[in-house]
Specification:
The protein is an alpha+beta fold. The chain contains seven helices and eleven strands. Helix content is about 25%, strand content about 30%. Bound molecules: cytidine-5'-monophosphate (C5P).
Amino acid sequence: MSDAPFCEVAPAKINLALHVRGRMADGYHALETLFAFTAFGDRVEAAPATDWALEVVGGSAHALGPADENLVLRAARAFRETTATPARYRLRLHKHIPVAAGLGGGSADAAATLRLLNRLAGHPLDQAGLLAIAAALGADVPACLVSRTMFGRGRGDQLLPVSGPGGVPVLLVNPRCPLATAAVFAGWDGVDHGPLDPANWRHGRNDLTASATALQPVIAEVLDWLRRLPGASHVRMSGSGATCLALFEGAAVPAMSPPDGWWNVSTVLL
Ligand code: C5P
């Protein structure tokens, strides 16, 4: 997952299916989901420095809040508290994944930071140690740490690697309306519509679609637009939205521009 000694890629996360099975005692929701990851994503770089700092650059940088609340710095803080590593770095986040978009951008950045700092420190933590830090940072961070196709249960942090449609072209479209994950989960109708069989994910649902669409009705238009594209074989909303995806299994992504200036990227599944 690294392409240079001081650099780590942070693939965007998508949910090929996401079933909400119930509400847990801690307020989180019990999920069954098929996570997949894309060649498109963010990038985290580190340069040795006298103190910790974070600079955010890139097309989605403007949408982020204060740097010290960024999951990159929170991950760095958790890593150095766990390992007592004395090294300090100036971190640069190349932010391309849209924010609050159902693509796990912050989680991917946090996971990439953990992988990068652990590598630069000579691997003081094994995978179990990294996963423990990841789980405390957010429900999707463990999956992003592994960044390969996985069946997720519980909060999404009980992970089982499964084979997936690697290399398949995927089009991501976001109508440029951020959605708060907690608000979308809060609008879930409370009905368990049944389990997800990871081997049969093409028949899986995204049970948050109705709640997200109630908050941002334009999501229905995005899904309709994607379904009409020639060769689109699997169209779903990702995570808590509003980004929607279309897979093109056995077909190239058609060269069509989405309407109304919707954000979009054509990439492939890892
Ligand atoms: O863990 P993370 O901070 O990414 O989750 C954001 C919010 O999404 C949580 O505060 C919770 O409201 C909701 N959530 C949930 N059930 C999950 C994952 C997230 O209710 N399995």
